[in-house]
Design goal:
Largest sheet: none
Strand content: under 5%
Distance between the termini: 50 Å
Order of helices and strands: HHHHHHHHHHHH
Radius of gyration: 19 Å
Oligomer: single chain
Length: 279
C-alpha cells in the first residue's frame, strides 16, 4: 500500500498547530490573518501543488512517451540525492531569486507580510510562486520517472523540517542550552533549517542585529546557505516579524497578483523601499 504522504504532512502540520495553541503562541492574530493563512495554504497544498505534479507527468508523457517509471531501478540513495539537487537546491535558488528580482518578490511578499512566525504561514505565498517554482516541476517529473515511494518519505521529512522551522514553538532553543548537545546542535544548525536561522530570515528590522533578510534561504537543507555564503547563525530570534519599508497590500493582491494589481504608486516605490531598507 502506497504511503499517503499528504495525510502524514497534514497530521504533522496539525500537531504543530495544536501545540502552538496549547502553548498560547497564537494570541493577537486576527481572524483575517488566520483566514488568509488557511486559504493560501489550502490552495497551494491541495490545488497548485497537485496540479503541477500532474502537469509535469503529462508533459513528460507527451515529450518522451514510455518514460513512466524509467528510473525506478535506481537505488534509494541515488533518488534522494537527485531530489535534494532537483527539488531542494533549486528551491534555494528560486527563493533567493525572489529576494533579488522585484517582480518575483511580489510573488513572495505574502510569506513575509505576516507579523508572526507560525506553522500557518508555511504555504502563505502567491499562487504563482509555487506554480512557477522549478523544484516542484522537477519533483513531479522525478515522481513520473519512478521516484514515488522514495519521494513520499523525502517530502515528509522535508515538510516536517520546514514546518518546524516556521513554528513559533522554537524547538531548538532548549537544545542549545544542553552542554552535551552542543556538538550535535552545531552540526544540526548548519545542515537543516531551524526556528532560529529561519526566523532571522523573517525579521522585520534589518538593524536589530538578528534579522538576515537577504540570506538563510534554505528550506530542508540550511547547508545550501553555508555552501553559497548566505548563512548567518546567531541562535537568537527577532523580536518582530514582517516587511520593512513597504506599505501593506490586500490579501487578494498578495495571493493573486498580477490578476489583482498592486496599488499603482506602491509598485515602484515599494520595490525601491524593500531593496534600500534591507539591501
Amino acid at each position: 500500500m502506497a504511503l499517503n504522504y499528504r495525510a502524514v504532512i497534514v497530521g504533522v502540520g496539525l500537531s504543530f498547530a495544536i501545540a502552538e495553541v496549547l502553548a498560547d503562541r497564537v494570541r493577537g492574530r486576527t481572524g483575517s490573518q488566520l483566514a488568509f493563512d488557511v486559504v493560501s495554504g489550502g490552495a497551494v497544498g491541495f490545488v497548485v501543488g497537485p496540479l503541477v505534479t500532474v502537469a509535469a507527468s503529462l508533459l513528460l508523457d507527451a515529450v518522451t512517451p514510455g518514460s513512466r517509471d524509467a528510473l525506478a531501478h535506481l537505488p534509494a540513495w541515488a533518488m534522494v540525492a537527485m531530489l535534494l539537487l532537483g527539488d531542494d537546491l533549486t528551491q534555494y535558488w528560486w527563493h533567493r531569486a525572489c529576494h533579488s528580482v522585484p517582480w518575483l518578490y511580489t510573488l513572495h511578499r505574502a510569506h513575509h507580510s505576516a507579523p508572526y512566525m507560525s506553522v500557518s504561514i508555511v504555504y502563505r505565498n502567491n499562487l504563482l510562486y509555487y506554480a512557477l517554482m522549478p523544484g516542484l516541476w522537477i519533483a513531479g517529473a522525478l515522481v513520473h520517472l519512478g521516484f514515488g515511494s522514495v519521494y513520499a518519505v523525502y517530502i515528509i521529512v522535508k515538510l516536517t523540517v520546514i514546518i518546524g522551522a516556521h513554528s513559533s514553538l522554537r524547538w531548538d532553543a532548549p537544545l542549545y542550552r544542553v552542554r552535551a548537545l552542543r556538538p550535535v546542535m552545531w552540526v544540526v544548525e548548519r545542515v537543516l533549517s531551524t526556528p532560529s536561522t529561519h526566523a532571522m530570515h523573517h525579521g522585520l528590522h534589518a538593524d536589530d542585529g538578528v534579522t538576515h533578510y537577504k540570506g538563510n534561504y534554505g528550506n530542508l537543507l540550511f547547508f545550501w546557505d553555508v555552501l553559497f555564503g548566505t548563512a548567518r547563525i546567531t541562535r537568537r530570534y527577532p523580536e518582530a516579524f514582517g516587511i520593512e519599508g513597504l506599505r501593506p497590500q490586500s490579501h487578494a493582491t498578495e495571493l493573486a497578483w498580477p490578476f489583482v494589481p498592486l496599488q499603482p504608486e506602491e509598485e515602484a516605490a515599494g520595490e525601491l523601499g524593500q531593496t534600500s531598507s534591507v539591501g
